[in-house]
Amino acid sequence: MSLSLFRLFFLLLCFLPLAFSEDSAPSSDASLPRPLIIEYPQPSKAVDEELRLRCTSWRFAAETNNLSPWKTIPQECAEYVKVYMTGEGYSLDLQRVSEEAGFYAKSVELSGDGKDAWIFDIDETLLSNLPYYANHLFGLEVFDHPEFDKWVERASAPAIPPSLRLYEQVLQLGFKVFLLTGRTEKHRGVTVENLINAGFQNWDKLILRSSEDYVKLATEYKSEKRDEMVKEGYRILGNSGDQWSDLLGSAMSARSFKLPNPMYYIS
Amino acid sequence: MSLSLFRLFFLLLCFLPLAFSEDSAPSSDASLPRPLIIEYPQPSKAVDEELRLRCTSWRFAAETNNLSPWKTIPQECAEYVKVYMTGEGYSLDLQRVSEEAGFYAKSVELSGDGKDAWIFDIDETLLSNLPYYANHLFGLEVFDHPEFDKWVERASAPAIPPSLRLYEQVLQLGFKVFLLTGRTEKHRGVTVENLINAGFQNWDKLILRSSEDYVKLATEYKSEKRDEMVKEGYRILGNSGDQWSDLLGSAMSARSFKLPNPMYYIS
After folding, report:
1. How far is CA A32 from CA A36, A72, B11, B33, in A?
2. Interchain pair B103, A68: CB under 8 A
3. Second label for A81, Cα 20 to 30 Å away, from A29, A34, B82, B222?
Protein backbone atom coordinates (compact mmCIF):
# COMPACT_ATOMS: atom_id res chain seq x y z
CA MET A 1 0.00 0.00 0.00
CA SER A 2 2.74 2.42 0.99
CA LEU A 3 4.48 1.71 -2.27
CA SER A 4 1.52 2.65 -4.41
CA LEU A 5 0.99 5.76 -2.29
CA PHE A 6 4.59 6.65 -2.88
CA ARG A 7 4.17 6.00 -6.58
CA LEU A 8 1.08 8.23 -6.68
CA PHE A 9 2.84 11.04 -4.88
CA PHE A 10 5.76 10.58 -7.18
CA LEU A 11 3.69 10.77 -10.34
CA LEU A 12 1.91 13.81 -9.01
CA LEU A 13 5.20 15.59 -8.50
CA CYS A 14 6.32 14.51 -11.93
CA PHE A 15 3.25 16.05 -13.52
CA LEU A 16 3.32 19.29 -11.58
CA PRO A 17 5.95 20.99 -13.75
CA LEU A 18 4.00 20.08 -16.88
CA ALA A 19 0.90 21.69 -15.43
CA PHE A 20 2.72 24.91 -14.62
CA SER A 21 4.72 24.95 -17.83
CA GLU A 22 1.57 25.68 -19.80
CA ASP A 23 1.23 29.11 -18.21
CA SER A 24 4.63 30.43 -19.17
CA ALA A 25 5.15 28.74 -22.51
CA PRO A 26 5.13 31.07 -25.54
CA SER A 27 2.11 30.20 -27.60
CA SER A 28 4.22 29.38 -30.71
CA ASP A 29 6.10 26.60 -28.95
CA ALA A 30 3.03 25.24 -27.32
CA SER A 31 3.04 22.19 -29.56
CA LEU A 32 6.07 20.70 -27.82
CA PRO A 33 6.16 20.51 -24.06
CA ARG A 34 9.16 22.47 -22.81
CA PRO A 35 11.45 20.51 -20.57
CA LEU A 36 11.02 22.31 -17.32
CA ILE A 37 14.12 21.74 -15.30
CA ILE A 38 13.54 24.12 -12.42
CA GLU A 39 12.26 21.76 -10.28
CA TYR A 40 12.11 21.59 -6.62
CA PRO A 41 13.33 24.00 -4.00
CA GLN A 42 16.81 22.87 -3.14
CA PRO A 43 17.24 24.26 0.40
CA SER A 44 14.49 22.02 1.74
CA LYS A 45 16.43 19.03 0.41
CA ALA A 46 19.49 20.03 2.42
CA VAL A 47 17.29 20.43 5.47
CA ASP A 48 15.80 17.02 4.72
CA GLU A 49 19.21 15.40 4.53
CA GLU A 50 20.27 17.04 7.78
CA LEU A 51 17.04 15.91 9.39
CA ARG A 52 17.46 12.37 8.10
CA LEU A 53 20.88 12.25 9.74
CA ARG A 54 19.57 13.63 13.03
CA CYS A 55 16.65 11.22 13.11
CA THR A 56 18.86 8.25 12.18
CA SER A 57 21.08 9.28 15.08
CA TRP A 58 18.04 9.46 17.37
CA ARG A 59 16.90 6.02 16.17
CA PHE A 60 20.30 4.50 16.90
CA ALA A 61 20.33 6.07 20.36
CA ALA A 62 16.87 4.63 20.97
CA GLU A 63 17.72 1.18 19.62
CA THR A 64 20.99 0.91 21.57
CA ASN A 65 19.21 1.85 24.81
CA ASN A 66 21.13 5.10 25.23
CA LEU A 67 18.07 7.27 25.79
CA SER A 68 16.32 7.96 29.05
CA PRO A 69 12.74 6.65 29.10
CA TRP A 70 10.74 8.54 26.48
CA LYS A 71 7.00 8.94 25.93
CA THR A 72 6.76 10.05 22.32
CA ILE A 73 9.04 10.16 19.33
CA PRO A 74 10.62 13.56 18.56
CA GLN A 75 8.19 15.79 16.67
CA GLU A 76 10.80 16.49 14.00
CA CYS A 77 11.22 12.75 13.32
CA ALA A 78 7.51 12.02 12.81
CA GLU A 79 7.82 11.71 9.03
CA TYR A 80 11.13 9.83 9.30
CA VAL A 81 9.65 7.20 11.60
CA LYS A 82 6.59 6.85 9.37
CA VAL A 83 8.74 6.33 6.28
CA TYR A 84 10.92 3.84 8.15
CA MET A 85 7.99 1.86 9.55
CA THR A 86 6.00 1.70 6.34
CA GLY A 87 8.93 1.38 3.94
CA GLU A 88 11.71 -1.08 3.37
CA GLY A 89 13.80 -0.08 6.40
CA TYR A 90 11.72 -1.73 9.12
CA SER A 91 11.05 -4.75 6.99
CA LEU A 92 14.76 -5.29 6.24
CA ASP A 93 15.66 -4.92 9.92
CA LEU A 94 13.02 -7.46 10.93
CA GLN A 95 14.27 -9.93 8.35
CA ARG A 96 17.86 -9.58 9.45
CA VAL A 97 17.22 -10.04 13.15
CA SER A 98 15.25 -13.23 12.53
CA GLU A 99 17.89 -14.53 10.15
CA GLU A 100 20.65 -13.89 12.70
CA ALA A 101 18.58 -15.53 15.43
CA GLY A 102 17.94 -18.47 13.11
CA PHE A 103 21.66 -18.95 12.35
CA TYR A 104 22.34 -18.91 16.06
CA ALA A 105 19.47 -21.29 16.91
CA LYS A 106 20.79 -23.82 14.40
CA SER A 107 24.32 -23.51 15.80
CA VAL A 108 23.30 -24.33 19.37
CA GLU A 109 23.75 -27.88 20.51
CA LEU A 110 20.58 -28.79 22.36
CA SER A 111 20.72 -31.09 25.34
CA GLY A 112 17.58 -32.94 24.30
CA ASP A 113 16.22 -33.03 27.86
CA GLY A 114 13.43 -30.60 26.99
CA LYS A 115 14.99 -27.82 29.03
CA ASP A 116 16.39 -25.69 26.18
CA ALA A 117 14.25 -22.59 26.07
CA TRP A 118 13.64 -19.69 23.71
CA ILE A 119 11.63 -16.70 24.92
CA PHE A 120 9.56 -14.49 22.67
CA ASP A 121 7.90 -11.24 23.58
CA ILE A 122 4.57 -10.69 21.78
CA ASP A 123 3.83 -7.08 20.76
CA GLU A 124 6.13 -5.84 17.98
CA THR A 125 7.97 -9.16 18.28
CA LEU A 126 5.55 -11.89 17.16
CA LEU A 127 2.52 -9.71 16.47
CA SER A 128 2.55 -6.35 14.72
CA ASN A 129 0.48 -3.45 16.02
CA LEU A 130 1.44 -1.38 13.02
CA PRO A 131 -2.21 -1.07 11.89
CA TYR A 132 -2.95 0.54 15.27
CA TYR A 133 0.10 2.81 15.27
CA ALA A 134 -0.53 3.88 11.69
CA ASN A 135 -3.73 5.43 13.08
CA HIS A 136 -1.85 6.95 16.00
CA LEU A 137 0.96 8.77 14.24
CA PHE A 138 3.59 6.05 14.70
CA GLY A 139 4.46 7.02 18.25
CA LEU A 140 4.00 10.78 18.01
CA GLU A 141 0.87 10.49 20.18
CA VAL A 142 1.24 9.72 23.86
CA PHE A 143 0.27 6.09 24.49
CA ASP A 144 -3.50 5.80 24.95
CA HIS A 145 -4.11 2.74 27.10
CA PRO A 146 -7.91 2.40 26.66
CA GLU A 147 -7.64 2.89 22.90
CA PHE A 148 -4.85 0.34 22.62
CA ASP A 149 -6.85 -2.13 24.74
CA LYS A 150 -9.70 -1.88 22.26
CA TRP A 151 -7.27 -2.76 19.48
CA VAL A 152 -5.88 -5.70 21.48
CA GLU A 153 -9.42 -6.96 22.06
CA ARG A 154 -10.04 -7.14 18.33
CA ALA A 155 -7.42 -9.92 18.26
CA SER A 156 -6.52 -8.99 14.73
CA ALA A 157 -2.85 -8.03 14.91
CA PRO A 158 -1.01 -9.70 12.03
CA ALA A 159 2.10 -11.84 12.48
CA ILE A 160 5.49 -10.34 11.79
CA PRO A 161 6.39 -12.77 8.99
CA PRO A 162 10.14 -13.23 9.70
CA SER A 163 9.31 -13.74 13.39
CA LEU A 164 6.78 -16.43 12.49
CA ARG A 165 9.46 -18.19 10.43
CA LEU A 166 11.94 -18.01 13.33
CA TYR A 167 9.26 -19.21 15.73
CA GLU A 168 8.57 -22.28 13.62
CA GLN A 169 12.28 -22.89 13.14
CA VAL A 170 13.15 -22.89 16.85
CA LEU A 171 10.19 -25.17 17.60
CA GLN A 172 11.33 -27.57 14.92
CA LEU A 173 14.87 -27.52 16.31
CA GLY A 174 13.47 -28.70 19.63
CA PHE A 175 13.44 -25.57 21.77
CA LYS A 176 10.71 -25.08 24.34
CA VAL A 177 9.01 -21.81 23.50
CA PHE A 178 7.92 -19.38 26.20
CA LEU A 179 5.86 -16.32 25.40
CA LEU A 180 6.54 -13.61 27.94
CA THR A 181 4.41 -10.52 27.47
CA GLY A 182 3.53 -7.31 29.27
CA ARG A 183 -0.13 -7.93 28.37
CA THR A 184 -2.31 -8.73 31.37
CA GLU A 185 -4.16 -11.92 32.31
CA LYS A 186 -7.49 -10.30 31.40
CA HIS A 187 -6.28 -10.40 27.80
CA ARG A 188 -5.29 -14.07 27.84
CA GLY A 189 -8.28 -15.12 25.75
CA VAL A 190 -7.91 -12.53 22.99
CA THR A 191 -4.16 -12.97 22.98
CA VAL A 192 -4.40 -16.73 22.41
CA GLU A 193 -7.04 -16.13 19.75
CA ASN A 194 -4.86 -13.54 18.03
CA LEU A 195 -1.75 -15.70 18.16
CA ILE A 196 -3.58 -18.70 16.71
CA ASN A 197 -5.17 -16.57 13.99
CA ALA A 198 -1.77 -15.22 13.08
CA GLY A 199 -0.32 -18.73 12.77
CA PHE A 200 1.48 -19.26 16.10
CA GLN A 201 0.98 -22.53 17.93
CA ASN A 202 2.62 -25.11 20.16
CA TRP A 203 4.15 -22.71 22.63
CA ASP A 204 4.98 -24.25 25.98
CA LYS A 205 3.76 -21.45 28.20
CA LEU A 206 2.14 -18.07 27.72
CA ILE A 207 3.07 -15.79 30.63
CA LEU A 208 1.03 -12.64 31.16
CA ARG A 209 1.07 -10.04 33.93
CA SER A 210 -1.05 -10.96 36.91
CA SER A 211 -2.49 -8.26 39.14
CA GLU A 212 0.53 -8.27 41.49
CA ASP A 213 2.79 -7.55 38.52
CA TYR A 214 0.96 -4.34 37.56
CA VAL A 215 3.19 -2.11 39.67
CA LYS A 216 6.42 -3.65 38.44
CA LEU A 217 8.55 -2.27 35.65
CA ALA A 218 8.75 -4.60 32.66
CA THR A 219 12.43 -5.32 33.33
CA GLU A 220 11.62 -6.42 36.87
CA TYR A 221 8.55 -8.49 35.96
CA LYS A 222 10.29 -10.23 33.07
CA SER A 223 13.46 -10.86 35.07
CA GLU A 224 11.39 -12.54 37.79
CA LYS A 225 9.71 -14.77 35.24
CA ARG A 226 13.08 -15.72 33.74
CA ASP A 227 14.42 -16.41 37.24
CA GLU A 228 11.53 -18.85 37.72
CA MET A 229 12.33 -20.61 34.44
CA VAL A 230 15.95 -21.03 35.51
CA LYS A 231 14.82 -22.38 38.90
CA GLU A 232 12.71 -24.91 37.03
CA GLY A 233 15.85 -26.06 35.27
CA TYR A 234 15.43 -24.34 31.92
CA ARG A 235 18.44 -23.03 30.05
CA ILE A 236 17.45 -19.77 28.37
CA LEU A 237 19.38 -19.90 25.12
CA GLY A 238 17.54 -17.33 23.04
CA ASN A 239 15.35 -14.32 23.73
CA SER A 240 13.63 -12.15 21.12
CA GLY A 241 12.11 -8.79 22.01
CA ASP A 242 11.65 -5.28 20.66
CA GLN A 243 12.34 -3.62 24.05
CA TRP A 244 15.50 -3.77 26.11
CA SER A 245 13.22 -4.45 29.07
CA ASP A 246 12.47 -7.79 27.36
CA LEU A 247 16.15 -8.65 27.31
CA LEU A 248 18.04 -7.07 30.21
CA GLY A 249 17.93 -7.80 33.95
CA SER A 250 18.53 -11.10 35.69
CA ALA A 251 18.66 -14.57 34.15
CA MET A 252 19.57 -13.04 30.82
CA SER A 253 19.55 -15.27 27.79
CA ALA A 254 22.77 -16.67 26.29
CA ARG A 255 21.95 -14.59 23.21
CA SER A 256 19.39 -11.81 22.96
CA PHE A 257 17.85 -10.46 19.78
CA LYS A 258 16.65 -6.87 19.73
CA LEU A 259 13.92 -6.30 17.17
CA PRO A 260 13.55 -2.76 15.87
CA ASN A 261 10.93 -0.48 17.37
CA PRO A 262 11.36 3.28 17.15
CA MET A 263 7.68 3.95 18.03
CA TYR A 264 7.56 3.46 21.78
CA TYR A 265 9.61 2.71 24.86
CA ILE A 266 8.77 0.44 27.80
CA SER A 267 10.87 0.59 30.99
CA MET B 1 25.08 12.48 -1.09
CA SER B 2 22.22 10.02 -1.17
CA LEU B 3 19.89 12.97 -1.35
CA SER B 4 21.37 14.24 -4.56
CA LEU B 5 21.22 10.69 -5.81
CA PHE B 6 17.58 10.60 -4.97
CA ARG B 7 17.08 13.93 -6.71
CA LEU B 8 18.82 12.62 -9.79
CA PHE B 9 16.80 9.46 -9.82
CA PHE B 10 13.70 11.53 -9.34
CA LEU B 11 14.45 13.89 -12.23
CA LEU B 12 15.30 10.99 -14.42
CA LEU B 13 11.99 9.35 -13.77
CA CYS B 14 10.20 12.65 -14.28
CA PHE B 15 11.75 12.99 -17.70
CA LEU B 16 11.13 9.45 -18.79
CA PRO B 17 7.60 10.12 -20.08
CA LEU B 18 8.96 13.05 -22.14
CA ALA B 19 11.65 10.81 -23.56
CA PHE B 20 9.13 8.34 -24.76
CA SER B 21 6.84 11.06 -26.11
CA GLU B 22 9.62 12.06 -28.52
CA ASP B 23 9.11 8.93 -30.53
CA SER B 24 5.68 10.04 -31.54
CA ALA B 25 6.58 13.73 -32.00
CA PRO B 26 6.47 14.97 -35.63
CA SER B 27 9.94 15.42 -37.21
CA SER B 28 9.27 19.09 -38.03
CA ASP B 29 9.88 19.91 -34.37
CA ALA B 30 13.50 18.75 -34.55
CA SER B 31 14.67 22.43 -34.74
CA LEU B 32 14.18 22.73 -31.04
CA PRO B 33 17.07 21.19 -29.11
CA ARG B 34 16.02 17.84 -27.85
CA PRO B 35 16.24 17.50 -24.15
CA LEU B 36 18.94 14.94 -23.54
CA ILE B 37 17.75 13.13 -20.59
CA ILE B 38 19.56 9.89 -20.14
CA GLU B 39 22.52 11.32 -18.37
CA TYR B 40 23.19 9.08 -15.44
CA PRO B 41 23.23 5.33 -15.31
CA GLN B 42 19.98 4.61 -13.60
CA PRO B 43 20.57 1.13 -12.22
CA SER B 44 23.55 2.15 -10.09
CA LYS B 45 21.53 4.92 -8.44
CA ALA B 46 18.77 2.56 -7.45
CA VAL B 47 21.37 0.06 -6.30
CA ASP B 48 22.99 2.78 -4.17
CA GLU B 49 19.76 3.54 -2.35
CA GLU B 50 19.07 -0.15 -1.89
CA LEU B 51 22.62 -0.63 -0.63
CA ARG B 52 22.32 2.26 1.80
CA LEU B 53 19.24 0.61 3.28
CA ARG B 54 20.95 -2.77 3.52
CA CYS B 55 24.06 -1.33 5.15
CA THR B 56 22.00 0.76 7.58
CA SER B 57 20.22 -2.46 8.48
CA TRP B 58 23.56 -4.21 8.96
CA ARG B 59 24.77 -1.34 11.15
CA PHE B 60 21.58 -1.52 13.23
CA ALA B 61 22.13 -5.25 13.70
CA ALA B 62 25.77 -4.68 14.68
CA GLU B 63 25.02 -1.83 17.10
CA THR B 64 22.17 -3.70 18.83
CA ASN B 65 24.39 -6.77 19.32
CA ASN B 66 22.26 -8.96 17.07
CA LEU B 67 25.16 -10.27 14.99
CA SER B 68 27.34 -13.24 15.72
CA PRO B 69 30.98 -12.26 16.28
CA TRP B 70 32.35 -10.81 13.06
CA LYS B 71 35.89 -10.21 11.84
CA THR B 72 35.42 -7.66 9.07
CA ILE B 73 32.67 -5.36 7.86
CA PRO B 74 30.68 -6.62 4.86
CA GLN B 75 32.54 -5.91 1.62
CA GLU B 76 29.47 -4.24 0.13
CA CYS B 77 29.29 -1.78 3.06
CA ALA B 78 32.92 -0.61 2.82
CA GLU B 79 32.00 2.74 1.26
CA TYR B 80 28.97 3.16 3.54
CA VAL B 81 31.07 2.68 6.69
CA LYS B 82 33.74 5.05 5.39
CA VAL B 83 31.15 7.75 4.68
CA TYR B 84 29.55 7.22 8.09
CA MET B 85 32.86 7.30 9.99
CA THR B 86 34.30 10.32 8.21
CA GLY B 87 31.05 12.22 7.79
CA GLU B 88 28.47 13.72 10.06
CA GLY B 89 26.82 10.43 11.03
CA TYR B 90 29.47 9.16 13.44
CA SER B 91 30.07 12.58 14.86
CA LEU B 92 26.34 13.14 15.57
CA ASP B 93 26.04 9.73 17.20
CA LEU B 94 29.04 10.41 19.44
CA GLN B 95 27.62 13.76 20.49
CA ARG B 96 24.25 12.30 21.30
CA VAL B 97 25.52 9.45 23.43
CA SER B 98 27.66 11.78 25.54
CA GLU B 99 24.80 14.24 25.90
CA GLU B 100 22.46 11.49 27.07
CA ALA B 101 25.09 10.19 29.47
CA GLY B 102 25.62 13.73 30.75
CA PHE B 103 21.88 14.28 31.39
CA TYR B 104 21.82 11.01 33.29
CA ALA B 105 25.01 11.78 35.28
CA LYS B 106 23.53 15.09 36.42
CA SER B 107 20.28 13.42 37.43
CA VAL B 108 21.95 10.86 39.71
CA GLU B 109 22.04 11.66 43.39
CA LEU B 110 25.54 10.85 44.56
CA SER B 111 26.12 9.48 48.03
CA GLY B 112 29.23 11.58 48.57
CA ASP B 113 31.14 8.72 50.16
CA GLY B 114 33.51 8.48 47.19
CA LYS B 115 32.02 5.17 46.09
CA ASP B 116 29.98 6.38 43.11
CA ALA B 117 31.77 5.10 40.03
CA TRP B 118 31.71 5.69 36.30
CA ILE B 119 33.60 3.32 34.01
CA PHE B 120 35.06 4.30 30.68
CA ASP B 121 36.52 2.01 28.08
CA ILE B 122 39.45 3.58 26.18
CA ASP B 123 39.67 2.69 22.47
CA GLU B 124 36.84 4.21 20.42
CA THR B 125 35.39 5.48 23.70
CA LEU B 126 37.84 8.06 25.07
CA LEU B 127 40.51 7.82 22.38
CA SER B 128 39.86 7.59 18.66
CA ASN B 129 41.82 5.20 16.48
CA LEU B 130 40.18 6.60 13.39
CA PRO B 131 43.56 7.76 11.96
CA TYR B 132 44.67 4.12 12.13
CA TYR B 133 41.47 2.67 10.70
CA ALA B 134 41.39 5.25 7.91
CA ASN B 135 44.62 3.58 6.74
CA HIS B 136 43.12 0.13 7.18
CA LEU B 137 39.89 0.44 5.23
CA PHE B 138 37.63 1.18 8.21
CA GLY B 139 37.27 -2.43 9.27
CA LEU B 140 37.34 -4.10 5.87
CA GLU B 141 40.80 -5.51 6.68
CA VAL B 142 41.11 -8.30 9.21
CA PHE B 143 42.54 -6.88 12.46
CA ASP B 144 46.34 -6.78 12.32
CA HIS B 145 47.58 -6.99 15.88
CA PRO B 146 51.27 -6.09 15.33
CA GLU B 147 50.34 -3.14 13.11
CA PHE B 148 47.79 -1.87 15.60
CA ASP B 149 50.33 -2.23 18.43
CA LYS B 150 52.72 0.02 16.52
CA TRP B 151 49.95 2.63 16.30
CA VAL B 152 49.20 2.29 20.04
CA GLU B 153 52.89 2.77 20.82
CA ARG B 154 52.89 6.09 19.03
CA ALA B 155 50.57 7.33 21.81
CA SER B 156 49.02 9.79 19.41
CA ALA B 157 45.35 8.79 19.30
CA PRO B 158 43.22 11.93 19.60
CA ALA B 159 40.45 12.36 22.17
CA ILE B 160 36.85 11.86 21.11
CA PRO B 161 35.74 15.41 21.95
CA PRO B 162 32.21 14.69 23.30
CA SER B 163 33.69 11.88 25.43
CA LEU B 164 36.28 14.25 26.87
CA ARG B 165 33.48 16.67 27.80
CA LEU B 166 31.51 13.86 29.47
CA TYR B 167 34.65 12.67 31.24
CA GLU B 168 35.26 16.11 32.72
CA GLN B 169 31.60 16.48 33.61
CA VAL B 170 31.37 13.23 35.58
CA LEU B 171 34.62 14.03 37.42
CA GLN B 172 33.27 17.43 38.34
CA LEU B 173 30.02 15.89 39.57
CA GLY B 174 32.06 13.78 41.97
CA PHE B 175 32.14 10.36 40.35
CA LYS B 176 35.20 8.18 40.74
CA VAL B 177 36.41 7.38 37.25
CA PHE B 178 37.72 3.95 36.33
CA LEU B 179 39.32 3.26 32.98
CA LEU B 180 38.81 -0.37 32.03
CA THR B 181 40.54 -1.35 28.80
CA GLY B 182 41.40 -4.43 26.79
CA ARG B 183 44.90 -3.01 26.28
CA THR B 184 47.62 -4.95 28.09
CA GLU B 185 49.89 -3.96 30.97
CA LYS B 186 52.85 -3.70 28.61
CA HIS B 187 51.10 -0.68 27.10
CA ARG B 188 50.47 1.07 30.42
CA GLY B 189 53.15 3.68 29.78
CA VAL B 190 52.09 4.67 26.28
CA THR B 191 48.44 4.56 27.28
CA VAL B 192 48.93 6.97 30.17
CA GLU B 193 51.03 9.20 27.92
CA ASN B 194 48.36 9.15 25.21
CA LEU B 195 45.52 9.85 27.63
CA ILE B 196 47.36 12.80 29.18
CA ASN B 197 48.30 14.17 25.75
CA ALA B 198 44.65 13.94 24.71
CA GLY B 199 43.51 15.86 27.79
CA PHE B 200 42.36 13.13 30.19
CA GLN B 201 43.46 13.27 33.80
CA ASN B 202 42.46 12.52 37.39
CA TRP B 203 41.14 9.04 36.81
CA ASP B 204 41.02 6.89 39.90
CA LYS B 205 42.33 3.70 38.40
CA LEU B 206 43.53 2.52 35.01
CA ILE B 207 42.87 -1.21 34.65
CA LEU B 208 44.68 -3.10 31.88
CA ARG B 209 44.85 -6.80 31.03
CA SER B 210 47.51 -8.66 32.94
CA SER B 211 49.02 -11.83 31.50
CA GLU B 212 46.46 -14.10 33.17
CA ASP B 213 43.69 -12.16 31.45
CA TYR B 214 45.02 -12.80 27.94
CA VAL B 215 42.98 -15.96 27.45
CA LYS B 216 39.72 -14.41 28.66
CA LEU B 217 37.05 -12.93 26.46
CA ALA B 218 36.58 -9.21 27.01
CA THR B 219 33.14 -9.76 28.57
CA GLU B 220 34.63 -12.15 31.12
CA TYR B 221 37.68 -10.02 31.92
CA LYS B 222 35.65 -6.82 32.27
CA SER B 223 32.94 -8.51 34.33
CA GLU B 224 35.57 -9.79 36.76
CA LYS B 225 37.01 -6.31 37.14
CA ARG B 226 33.56 -4.85 37.77
CA ASP B 227 32.88 -7.62 40.31
CA GLU B 228 36.02 -6.52 42.15
CA MET B 229 34.86 -2.89 42.16
CA VAL B 230 31.53 -3.93 43.65
CA LYS B 231 33.33 -6.02 46.28
CA GLU B 232 35.32 -2.93 47.18
CA GLY B 233 32.06 -1.14 47.81
CA TYR B 234 31.75 0.87 44.62
CA ARG B 235 28.36 1.53 43.06
CA ILE B 236 28.75 1.38 39.29
CA LEU B 237 26.33 4.04 38.11
CA GLY B 238 27.54 4.69 34.59
CA ASN B 239 29.51 2.77 31.99
CA SER B 240 30.58 4.04 28.58
CA GLY B 241 31.89 1.71 25.91
CA ASP B 242 31.80 1.12 22.17
CA GLN B 243 31.52 -2.67 22.53
CA TRP B 244 28.76 -4.65 24.18
CA SER B 245 31.55 -6.64 25.84
CA ASP B 246 32.34 -3.41 27.73
CA LEU B 247 28.79 -3.27 29.06
CA LEU B 248 27.26 -6.73 29.45
CA GLY B 249 28.07 -9.51 31.89
CA SER B 250 28.07 -9.40 35.68
CA ALA B 251 28.01 -6.31 37.90
CA MET B 252 26.42 -4.34 35.09
CA SER B 253 26.14 -0.60 35.50
CA ALA B 254 22.87 1.08 36.49
CA ARG B 255 22.97 2.72 33.05
CA SER B 256 25.19 1.77 30.14
CA PHE B 257 26.05 3.94 27.17
CA LYS B 258 26.87 2.26 23.89
CA LEU B 259 29.08 4.40 21.68
CA PRO B 260 28.89 3.74 17.95
CA ASN B 261 31.49 1.54 16.31
CA PRO B 262 30.68 -0.22 13.06
CA MET B 263 34.37 -0.97 12.31
CA TYR B 264 35.17 -3.91 14.57
CA TYR B 265 33.73 -6.34 17.05
CA ILE B 266 35.26 -7.63 20.30
CA SER B 267 33.71 -10.61 22.10
Report:
1. 12, 51, 19, 11
2. yes
3. B82
Residue pairs between chains A and B whose CB atoms are closer than 8 Å? 103
Amino acid symbol at A123: D
Could you give the C-alpha distances from A35 to A15, A38, B23, B33, B59, in angstroms and in order? 12, 9, 15, 10, 41
Give A159's DSSP letter: B
Does A40 sit within 8 Å of B66, measured CB to CB?
no
Query: B92 contacts in A (CB within 8 Å)?
Result: 53-54, 57
3-state SS, residue B209: strand
Between helix A88-107 and helix A78-86 the angle, nearest 10°, is: 60
Domains in chain A, please, with CATH? 52-258 (3.40.50.1000)
Q: Render pLDDT for A40-94 as a digit per residue (tens, 0 to 9).
A: 445 566 769 899 999 999 999 999 999 999 999 999 999 999 999 999 999 999 9
- ipTM surpassing 0.85: no
Around Cβ B197, how many Cβ atoms within 10 Å?
Answer: 14
Q: Is residue A51 within 8 angstroms of chain B, CB to CB?
A: no
